[in-house]
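Narrative of activities, Objective 1.

The group set out to show that a structural description can be obtained from nothing but a protein's sequence at a throughput compatible with the screening campaign. Below is one input-output pair from the validation batch, recorded exactly as produced.
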Amino acid sequence: MADVNRLGSSTSPYLLQHAENPVDWWPWTPEAFEEARRRDVPVLLSVGYAACHWCHVMAHESFEDVATAEYLNEHFVCVKVDREERPDVDAIYMEATVAMTGQGGWPMSVFLTPTGEPFFCGTYFPAEPRHGMATFRQVLESLTEAWGSKRGQIDEIGRSVVAQLSARSHPAGGELDLGKAVALLKTDFDPVDAGFGRAPKFPPSMVLDFLLRHYRRTGSEDALRMVTETCERMARGGMYDQLAGGFARYSVDGQWVVPHFEKMLYDNALLLDVYTQWFALTEEPLARRIAIETADFLIAELRTPEGGFASALDADTEGVEGKYYVWTPDELREALSPEDAGWVIELCDVTGTFEHGLSVLQLRQDPDDLDRWNKVRSVLRDARARRTYPARDDKVVAAWNGLAITALARAGVVLRKPEYLEAAKNAAGLVRQVHLDETGKLRRTSRDGKAGTAYGVLEDYAAFAQACLTLLGVTGDASWLRTAESLLGRVLEQFVADGTFYDTAADAEALVWRPKDPTDNASPSGVALAAEALTTLASVTGSTRYETAAAQALAASAALGNRAPRFAGRALAVAETLESGPLEIAIAGSDAELLRVAITDSPWGTAVVQGEPGLDVPLMEGRELRDGRAAAYVCQKFTCRLPVVLPEDLRRALRPVQQA
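Output recorded for this entry:
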């Protein structure tokens, strides 16, 4: 067995992947930088995540190579960071990488002074010459020489980068122009292949959420068309697992055919919510099918023994990207009868998407024989199960579990799937029990029921608070309100200064600058999530404090949303819900169909609480049964219309004006 380095005691699967490297890795600790100061050498900061294909490539080529490791150990202090465990560290050095090189990605390779200031940045460096790129060894030797001969210049570069990036500001203030955002998105929409922009195409989950909410309020056919075409292309292409459900990270081409195969929790949680909302609005059968299959994938393949949800499935199997998911015609003929194999080869466009005649399965149209397709899917799933399964990054991330809890709770009600709600409650119970400490601080991650060392960032507090408020609404358990109030109280105390929302807490470890970014990336920005959760809490409690804070959080995204709405989708979605009222719906008593109509037919994100009369929740005060039956109250700022007891009456009360 190889010697284990300092990463051996980590709870991060990504760091544990490197625990037997010959590189003398340090985790991100003050001691690592103290060692660099003592030795007067630079720090190599290597950032990645467990499901990252190119991280695996660089690890195999360089970090497992003894000669490279010996050079690194002699001339650098090497620090390894899991970006999913320390998004704050990842954020500031990714900002530096993009500023210095014009692009970013993982693995991220940043060279720092012993005080943490970046002076040279990059991503993947090959071990051998490739496409004109400098090799990793060439980079290391050049930087070692410069450290010895141009130290003053290096220190000045580091100080200058920190000064410029810490002084950067994201203009805040003003209001989001929702109509302008739709018009800008229309100009960026791909009219041929759907989605936005060019390849690679990522699932635009937050933008689709906004467009659906906009359609509900305004009836905009353009908004619905962009959603419908994008959701159909994503669901029918190679990015979606046609056998077992779940979406891959992105499509490397512009036609949604060739996926980058890692499956991330946050993508599937966000897309589950999008397809559920699409079905709630349109009753589109494809939307229902994809929502159910995606929820089933989350529960079957990402749920941990403790009840939380794991972060990701790896892209690689046995060192080959996508090997678990792709097929040749001969493999299909081996698994199926000749007739079924021929049918599937044509139906699923098995024409050699990749080299060696391999293809992902696509489903560009619904099968003409659905029973036959379901039987074939089952056979192919069983055949695929005999392959080596992708590695799973089984750490539980608070923010991403928050997204999954919210999506599953809503889907459970809308799709009439109580097992989804149970899964959501179990995951929330784990996060509350394991991640929250006795002081009210939230740990970012856990693994095997043991909390990690890093505390949460803004997205963790906000996403989990929204999950708690969603569970309050569908369970009538007031303890979820207490948890949400505690989480968002800490947000206002520790993450906000002079009206500005920061991504890290005031009492968190000080980095070379304090990150604050309103931009949605693969998941919603922390400040947009805070705007959403604070809006919901204000609706449930009637508190002007939370309402004011929500408006401040939303204002942080106004300039970005009015200029580049693709990167402010969640803030725009929250603004849509506010523009529709915001409404509050209180249901006194228990009625599954009233609750379903309340969620399905109200603006998505509306605060809904169902509970027994007397429930200790401000929105429920004075809400009584009507003639012994459950009654729904539609309210705005706690001023309510007459209660209704029939689902169709509630549906009529919630119908948008333009559709009435």
